Amino acid sequence: MRVLSQFAGMGFAFYVIYAVRRFGLSDASAALLVTALLIGQVVLSPIMGRIGDRWSHRGIMSVGALARL
Fold first, then answer.
1. Dihedral (C-alpha) 69, 17, 30, 19: value to the nearest 10 degrees?
2. What angle do CA 7, 24, 14 make, to 5 degrees?
3. Residue 53 and residue 65: Cα distance in Å, rounded?
4. CB 21 within 8 A of CB 9
5. Residue boundaries of the structural domains of the chain
6. Helix, strand, or coil here: 24?
7. End-to-end CA gap in the chain
8. How confident is the model at residue 61 (pLDDT cuts 50, 70, 90)?
9. Measuring CA to CA, how many Å separate 27 from each of 17, 40, 59?
10. Among candidate residues 9, 27, 61, the one with its CA nearest the CA of residue 19
């Protein structure tokens, strides 16, 4: 599940490139989008790890997979 989830996350870079080319998204806006994603991952990963230790890691992976939809 984790490997498949990582493959799904790789597509995000292509979405940003598509938005820049198709919709004329500025480089600054694209950088802000990527920065928000990175900060969110850095901040939420330890929190989700603690919740996974108390609840279940499988449940946390399911919540993360649903959040990507």
1. -70
2. 10
3. 18
4. no
5. 2-67
6. coil
7. 15
8. confident
9. 10, 20, 36
10. 27
Per the structure block, which two tokens stand in for 61? 């992976």
Q: How many CA atoms lie within 13 A of 48 on its CB side?
A: 16
pTM above 0.90, yes or no: no
pLDDT tens profile 5-55: 777 777 777 888 888 899 988 989 989 988 988 898 889 888 888 888 888
64 three-state secondary structure:
helix
DSSP H helical ranges for the chain: 2-23, 27-54, 57-67
Burial label, 25 (beta-carbon count in 10 A; 0-12, 13-18, 19+): middle
Distances (CA, A) of 46 to 53, 57, 65: 11, 12, 17
Are 25 and 19 spatial neighbours (Cβ–Cβ below 8 Å)? yes
